[in-house]
């Protein structure tokens, strides 16, 4: 059962692609699984534009996603073991199919989404293959810079 140690995965600044749906972060649980504790996305757009849709999802069909391998960082205890979860950021190939768990529309003009999960109602991925991701969908000509993170326990 996850919940003993806290970790985070962050992205570098990414310039979003217009008229696209792309994943920012994809977490693959190790043993004993993971539970999300918080998430955040922020944008640096300089003019008012259509909102960016942010989706938290669980992978339904894996396919062959690719991106930058990112090592989760320890959040609260430097003596904690390394996370067993692995992560991809700035995906260049997406999972084949996803199940959307939550969605938000966020303004790209200095927009911020920061959310902590409600205790005992966290989104989780307990088995290997039950990956959790965070992605964006943009309208035409919407290309702000973006940074994102997912916090989790395992």
Overall outline: globular
- Work out the helicity level: under 10%
Q: So how many helices? A: 0
What is the gyration radius calculated from CA atoms? 15 Å
Biggest pleated-sheet summary: 7 strands, antiparallel
Strand residues, percent: over 45%
- Let me know the number of strands: 13
Low-confidence segments, given as residue ranges, are none
Structural class: mainly beta
Q: Please write the string of helix (H) and strand (E) elements.
A: EEEEEEEEEEEEE
Arithmetic mean of pLDDT: 90
| End-to-end C-alpha gap | 7 Å
Task: Describe the fold and architecture.
The structure is a single chain. The chain is an all-beta fold. The protein has no helices and 13 strands. The strands form 2 sheets. Strands 1, 2, 4, 7, 10, 11 and 13 form a 7-stranded antiparallel beta sheet that branches. Strands 6-8-3-12-5-9 form a 6-stranded antiparallel beta sheet, with no helix packed on it. The termini are close together.
List the helices and strands and how they pair.
Blueprint: E1 6-10, E2 14-15, E3 21-28, E4 34-43, E5 52-61, E6 66-70, E7 73-74, E8 86-93, E9 97-106, E10 112-116, E11 124-125, E12 132-137, E13 145-153
Antiparallel strand pairs: 1-7, 1-13, 2-13, 3-8, 3-12, 4-10, 4-11, 4-13, 5-9, 5-12, 6-8
């Amino acid at each position: 059962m996850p919940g003993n140690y806290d970790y985070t995965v962050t992205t570098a600044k990414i310039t979003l692609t217009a008229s696209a749906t792309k994943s920012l972060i994809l977490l693959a649980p190790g043993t004993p699984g993971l539970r999300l504790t918080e998430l955040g996305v922020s944008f640096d757009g300089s003019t008012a534009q259509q909102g960016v849709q942010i989706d938290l999802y669980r992978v339904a069909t894996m396919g062959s996603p690719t991106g930058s391998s990112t090592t989760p960082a320890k959040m609260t205890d430097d003596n904690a073991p390394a996370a067993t979860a692995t992560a991809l950021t700035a995906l260049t190939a997406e999972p084949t199919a996803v199940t959307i768990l939550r969605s938000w529309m966020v303004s790209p003009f200095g927009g911020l989404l920061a959310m902590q999960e409600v205790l005992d109602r966290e989104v989780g991925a307990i088995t290997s293959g039950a990956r959790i991701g965070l992605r964006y969908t943009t309208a035409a000509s919407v290309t702000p810079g973006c940074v994102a993170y997912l916090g989790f326990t395992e």
